Amino acid sequence: MMDKVQGYFGRNMNLRTKLLLLFLALTLLPLSLQGVVNYLHFSQTIDRKTEQFTIDIVRQINTNLDRLLKDFERLSLLPLYDQMVLGILGKYNAPMGSGTWARSDDYLKMKLYTSGQAYDRPEIRGIHLISNSGILFSNLDSLAVNPVWDSRQDDWFAELNGSEGEWRLLPPHEPSYYTGSHEEPYISVAREIRDPGTLQRLGYILIDIRLEAFGQLLSNLNFEQNASLMIVDSKQRLLFERTSAGGLSAYDQLLTHGQLQGYAGNQKVVLDGKPYLYVQHHSSYSGLSVISLTPIAVIQKESGEMLTFTFGFAVLCMAAVAVLAVLLSYRITRPLIRLKHNMIRVEQGDFSQRVAHFSNDEFGQISRGFNRMMEEIHRLFNEVFLLGIQEREAELSALQSQINPHFIYNTLESINMMAVRQKHAEVSDMVTALGKLLRYTIDKVDRRVPLQEELAFVQSYVRIQQVRYDGKLEVIYDIDEAVTDCLIPKLVLQPLVENAVYHGIEGQADGGVIWVSALKFDDELLIIVRDNGKGMAQVEIDELNESIARQPSNDALRCHAGDRLGLNNIAQRLRLMYGEGGSLSVDGSPGQGLAVTVSIQLQPKGE
């Protein structure tokens, strides 16, 4: 799948589109990664700071709460140091519920005392001193509270039993000693009042605190409006709760799930399918715990706004980058497109195309190179055209100077006649063979000749070499009659035989044998020249074949002394004339001679 995609993008897309996609990828990819990293970092930082801020707020609330309760505890201790209060309570020391009335001056004295303690404390609903018999002294008017109260009728009062003079914080309750019918619940700081000398209980002090006093603790703190805050005592009883903006009681939800006692410290909890940040701080002084429940959605609100901003900014950047990428890709590819159009016109035969305007960058260098190439092509085209004309003129000149070859032929014929008269048969044969060689190399101007003519030329060459080697050279011909009329390049076979003589046979005391064979295989002509000479190592043969297989060049078309008598020349001639239809290869082994094979794709004669 990836290969198909890469192939599509690699082959079917133009350079301008590739550059456009590249610009977009190189710009948007880092931008996207940076946006994601910034968002994650910002979100984590906000979460961490919000959590720490909530922890600090809760801790501060608990600190303020401790300060408030310590003040109330101090108020509850003051009657122990006032003999008047102790004396009045002692007058009415009897079993609870037995009290009926008290002297008016005692009510007045106690009212003055309690009123002084409650002065300028709006959070205090009332301060009440209660004797063991139920006589109630308060800072409130006599019409607001009952003068006599039996504490046994209120269950919440039972928590003072057995307190041994320690102060107690009573959860929200509705005292029955108030005469009003719509009294709200109060939280009370209560204590048994004992005689400092005898430690006998003389009565009780109750300080009723309005619930608004706890709400005032939040007024000076920047507490999240959508968060819930509750204060519970050591028995997990709710003293105060500030619900979230939705009005749902977090305390009720925790009780419903039975998880109030299971949470501690700071953690994330899920209530009714919604995640919350749960923060709890416990006071060792009062035993109260302040609990905050902040919705995670509220904490991540700023992260969401950051995400929206980042996404919007990314869209704007994408649009800007797209426009910039289009402009840049157009500006970069414009010289290439102009060069492409010029090359198309050149392919159509218009060699006068030039790049008129170009810059000093790499595209400018390519444009200059194109102009130089076109000038060189134009020059070579003219040279080839002129060379063709000169070649025609040379052919005419050659026709006019044929008298010189005829003079040579006549001279050789005279020498041959003299050798015949003197009965020198070998000299006559060599002169006759030399004449045929000269006539074949000079008179024939065609590029291709029938195979039988090339074989006749080879036989003349062999006749001369046999005389030279004193009969130690034997040449065996194995020619298929069906290929004698096949056209082959002129002077292809004789260099192969000469190569076999000089590099295979020469230097051997017993001479050697050369086999020349030609056969037709399908539509292919195979000519093989093999000798039984010294041969070559396989490494040398591989190097020779590799050199032969190289593309044609000016040097390759020249014959050098050490290049096996022009094997490269023959191979390159075959490739130039037949393309892939002509080839030459060498095979052999040390001590077993060499075999040179010429392969030609057959063509009709005269083609």
TrEMBL record:
Indicate the principal place this protein occupies in or around the cell: membrane
| Domain Histidine kinase per the UniProt entry, residue ranges | 492-604
Boundaries of each HAMP domain copy?
330-382
Instruction: Look at the named UniProt entry and state the broad enzyme category this protein falls under.
Output: transferase
Q: How does it sit in the membrane?
A: Multi-pass membrane protein
Going by the UniProt record, its keywords in alphabetical order are:
ATP-binding, Cell membrane, Kinase, Membrane, Nucleotide-binding, Phosphoprotein, Transferase, Transmembrane, Transmembrane helix, Two-component regulatory system
Highest taxon above the source species = Bacteria
Which CDD domains does the entry mention?
A: HAMP (cd06225)
PROSITE patterns associated with the record: HAMP, HIS_KIN
InterPro entries tied to this protein: Bact_2-comp_sensor_kinase, dCache_1, HAMP_dom, HATPase_C_sf, HATPase_dom, His_kinase_dom, Sig_transdc_His_kin_internal
Q: Which reaction does it catalyse?
A: ATP + protein L-histidine = ADP + protein N-phospho-L-histidine
Please verify whether the record's keywords include Kinase.
Answer: yes
Where would you find this protein in the cell? Cell membrane
Residue ranges crossing the lipid bilayer per the database entry:
306-330
Q: What is its EC number?
A: 2.7.13.3
Q: What is this protein called?
A: histidine kinase
